[in-house]
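Per reviewer request, we include the raw input and output of the structure prediction for the construct analysed in the revised manuscript.
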Amino acid sequence: MPRLLTVRWSASLVTAVVLSALLSISQPAQAHPHQLGGKRSCQTVLGWTEQTVKSSYIGPANPVPVQDVGSAAVYYDNIYNAAGMTIGHAVGYVEAIYKRPSDGHIFTRYHESIELPGGTLADSGTVDRTAMLAGAWVHFNLHGTSGKFLGASGSRAWQIIPPLSNSTVRLRMTFCP
């Protein structure tokens, strides 16, 4: 039976995360502003990683969870800057929704909420989970839901960093006001 997980953060831990994130976000090596069509100034963030620290799933896990249509998982991730400091968190839900008959690839739908210093964002999308587990980048539409990100749009992409057992991905996010 799935377990309900509760995550609690002390005030000092939250303060440390916010301060370290603010310091790391301002580093020019991680943020590369550019223009999209000459109209909007966007910021692409590179060098960040994300690691699942807790998860719970339904369905078989052979060899990993969410490989059969109808199976699903809830996960809690830490987001790290290039220096390895925790700068944010993500909570997500993934559900296997389709198995392509021609090659057996599993397709999954993701819904994620992301907390970074100054606000929150959300992303969602459907990806080829089989290709993702083999190392392909996956891409999601991103939109700001609160704070300095409210009304922003962009994209969020990630790629698994081997070995799979580390549950770590490379991140690439673009924010546009």
